[in-house]
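Write out structure tokens for CTP synthase.
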Amino acid sequence: MKYILVTGGVISGIGKGIIASSVGLILKSCGLHVTAIKIDPYINIDAGTFSPYEHGEVFVLDDGGEVDLDLGNYERFLDIRLTRDNNLTTGKIYQSVINKERRGDYLGKTVQVVPHITDAIQEWVVKQAKISVDDDGVEPQVCVIELGGTVGDIESMPFIEAFRQFQFKVKRDNFCNIHVSLVPQPSATGEQKTKPTQNSVRELRGLGLSPDLIMCRCATPLENAVKEKISMFCHVEPTQVICVADVSSIYKVPLLLEDQGVVGYICQRLDLPIEMRARKMLTKWKEMSDRSDRLLEHVSVALVGKYTKFSDSYASVIKALEHSALAINHKLEIKFIDSADLEPNTLQEEPVKYHEAWQKLCSADGVLVPGGFGVRGTEGKIQAISWARKKKKPFLGKMYLNANSTEFHPESKHPVVIDMPEHNPGQMGGTMRLGKRRTIFKSNTSILRKLYGDAEYVDERHRHRFEVNPELKHHFEERGFHFVGQDIEGERMEVIELDDHAYFVGVQYHPEFTSRPIKPSPPYFGLLLAAAGKLQSYLQKGCRLSPRDTYSDRSDSSSPDSEIAELKF
């Protein structure tokens, strides 16, 4: 097993997740099996109880793990399926060590950070790295490990120490360190400054880790003199200083690393047995990133939610929209609307904000209402859905219905949305309906079923505490709503569609979590097709796109599903 540790310096949120994903992608394109682990130094057991404003969205895995959004990047870039243990937190490590101590596993010894916590970290990484994340069940050959936060943080010290020891346990040929740092460019002088990177690398080396590659995040490409200065002061060759300048699309980052010889260096440094031949996977990736720069037609979607001030709160939703827009050859414009701004109260208190929000909504080609918890902004979401229904605007959303819910009105006598039996209201973490669940289609004429390739069922990821009250199903069906998808037992309403509407779909699950750049999520794909006015022709052609909208030159094989055999990573 080869281990690649990605650390970060100077500031958090520097782009370690995208760089770790990109390194994994270019290695996978060489035919290697790659897995990924994200380490978060916070004490929380998982990300499930975070506010979206803290760390962005909570990403949900097949096994129900609520994890950091970077695992979403790994899955999308590498086309793999991770598990909850691929996200390691301080809380998980301390919990496992304390449980061992309570069982008497340490035979009366004093339990300390070194060696017990550091050993537990190393054992976790070694064990998790061997678990297959591909459909073929093959054990991975390379494990990319991202250490969250910034070098020097007090929270991450046990992890840095663990990897200092780890590099000697697994031997030099099996471990390398990529350090991501910032090269700021103050507007006053316009000069690229290397001192923050020098200090960051000095601190890392002082803690016992020497970077093999220094990836410099910067606004503009690194000047040669700056590269040589970093090389001289940070004890690396100039070829080991990699420029990761700002680019128009994150899909260009793997190509940026490839062009600077990152694959060649890692393969030589870790003695990886690969051939440096032309790689089909990267060719397709380049085609996709080039296409994003050439789009002429536009499509706009209003995203009506509670956390719109911080785009990472809807990271997977935004990516799913981008994947679908790219698949139909349209440039995407997302209009972020705080759902509370659509409510009558805002008209009284801040009329300008109210009218701006409604103007955004009315000018959009389609409407998307993602899920959310709590009362705030719910009325605004319902207003947006009602408007989309009456004006026949393409709509996709989590199931919100204009009636009472036990989430918002616990004493309601006629609830349409009810608490699920397995939910424990006394405890917040991990008590929802989580992970991959099967939805059975009950209708042959369902639009969503056709978009899924006329499948009899789909497996999608869930994260919710509440469900539609099945006793009131007939009331909705009398008014043109159809519950076209249900769970295996037929008790839970999973998918709803509306008659006499271009595209009005509500789902109980989160389809965005399984969207991939070259295989967009069908519900989002349907929304974008409808918003661009292409849905009916797409369905009439047997769910085929026109040749110019596909990633293949062959017009006889142009549906996303048939293409995927060729494009599969």
